Request: fold
Amino acid sequence: MNENFFYHALQVDPKICFGCTLCMRNCPTEAIRIRNGKATIYENKCVDCGECYKVCPSGAIYVAQDDFQSIYNFKYRVVLMPSVFLGQFPEDIKASQVYSVIMDLGFTHVMEVEASALIHSKLSNKYIRENEDKKPLISTFCPAIVRLIQVKFPALVDNLIPIKAPVDFTAIYIRDKLLEEGIEPEDIGIFYITPCAAKIAATKSPVGEDKSTVDGVLNMDTMYNMVLKEIKVRGKNYQKKISANDVSSDCIIFSLTNGEKRLNNNKKSFAIDEIHNVIEFLEKVEDDEIEDLDFLELRACDESCAGGILTCGNRFLINDRMFQRAKKLAERERNGETLRKKEISKKEDLLIDNANVSKIMPRSMLKLDPDINVAFQKLSKIRELAVKLPQTDCNVCGAPSCKALAEDIVCENAKMTDCVFMQRNLEMRDSLSSNESVEIMKKIWGEEKLKDYILNK
Amino acid sequence: MMHTEFTVVEGDFSNAGKASSEIKKMLKQLDINPQKIKKMVVAVYEAEVNAIAHAYGGTIDVDIDQSKICVVIKDVGPGIPDIEKAMQKGFSTASAKVREMGFGAGMGLPNIKNNVDELDIKTEIGVGTEVRMVVNF
Ligand SMILES: Nc1ncnc2c1ncn2[C@@H]1O[C@H](COP(=O)(O)OP(=O)(O)OP(=O)(O)O)[C@@H](O)[C@H]1O
Ligand code: SF4
Ligand SMILES: [Mg+2]
Reply:
């Protein structure tokens, strides 16, 4: 896999974006600039966390997805549904109802992603035990966090646990099961319902893997609407096709905050959600400020996957429903009405054999140049420029801060004259005409915002 | 050579770490080995806290070139009567108030010594202390 190629599912629709700068100001990795009046994303800085999507007031940022019809490229169509998908539905809609209805939409098989969660945590616990020297070990469950560490905390890449995610495990399991049934490999299509852009990016260009374990990704909001509509149309008259029996009670909440930590018997571990919280904590981890740390569960979204940008409904309600479901299931397990051990455990060896990802590489976005002499010159230049800029962080140059503009200038992605204060200064000295200033502003803000009739509007 | 300065304010523990995180960012931009970055950040942080806790604040001077980083923390304060003793693990004169904030284990100076390639402490009773630290890249 080419380290420079990174698929991003988050995209800006230039027809809708009107350059309000909210996304740029909220991006935790300063990956957004305004060019030609529209938000544009620096691909090598974006970690797919979805903060921009959350704050965009006009819906200009969207998550590209595979066409639903592409499921019909396969004779056997498997849908992998994360537990959080079920958490979106009101209490009176049963898990088995959702399982059955989703199959009716065109799938031949359905499986809940978290079916493999216990095997996953068993393996990650083993890895943690065997890698004392790499502590604290950091979960790779949330792909936005993996990318965040690659670009912003390159010193911590060796702390990442190089194990695939539950969705990969479950996909490997079901594919193998269907192959065993004599189904041709090319006839199997596995589709994953994603709660976020990060998981899409991770399946399209997986970090530390050669090939994705799934054949396509479907957005959770789209799928939720399709299923809910179907349920409404049918009322209570659905035909139960399959019982919702993939997961045990302790797996359901795996993707929620503390979900991994709970299954992890380490002495000192933390579960931290929301990307700014994670960044704050990682700064400390990087400086060894926290002693004897064993394990970190880090998630980009507030309330973890219940707060994924593609989930429908309030994250706290989703969280609560998932806990209720887990509680009920635990009771049934205690009463012996259902087994805790599931089918998937029969293929544990297969999953263990295929669990590892190769070394995760750093991709520092801060690094100014691989050559220290050049980097040094650039850094000196940035610091020189930074004091000349007005420190107003006004965003008019199309960058999130004066500091970011200074970096852009030195990296040749912007010019000193992009700063309005510089423009006025140069105009006073007659080294820039007002026409030239307008042309500069047009490049950043587009023709539309600088048309001369605007004052007469 | 690149020069930067910071000021340290007496008793302001909440802002301790500002200088070290700024230094960290610069070193990351230079793509310096993460282990070296960590060493300098830890040392600067400890020295900064000392200037806040045991003295009345001061200044931090940072000089970076292609081969090393040199940080000098100069405070206005009581000075250190016995540097050798102060360098011992566990020696501390930290006040109850400072201890309450989680400092005062007497590990700061030994920790600095462990992390930097050069350490030079100049001190004058009743005037202040100057801690000079170098990490080679
Ligand atoms: N800048 C300073 N001015 C005056 N005295 C100092 C200064 N730095 C250190 N000292 C003296 O040296 C002692 C040891 O310092 P050291 O940093 O090793 O430990 P500490 O600050 O007491 O505790 P810790 O650093 O573990 O929180 C201090 O208790 C103090 O008496
Ligand atoms: S917390 Fe979950 S939903 Fe949010 S980015 Fe990470 S994996 Fe995706
Ligand atoms: Mg100290």
Summary: The CA atoms of residues 150 and 362 of chain A lie 5 Å apart. Chain A touches chain B at residues 154-155, 283, 286-288, 364, 366-370, 372-373, 375-376, 378-380, 382-383 (CB under 8 Å). DSSP finds 18 helices and eleven strands in chain A. The first strand of chain A starts at residue 10 and ends at 12.
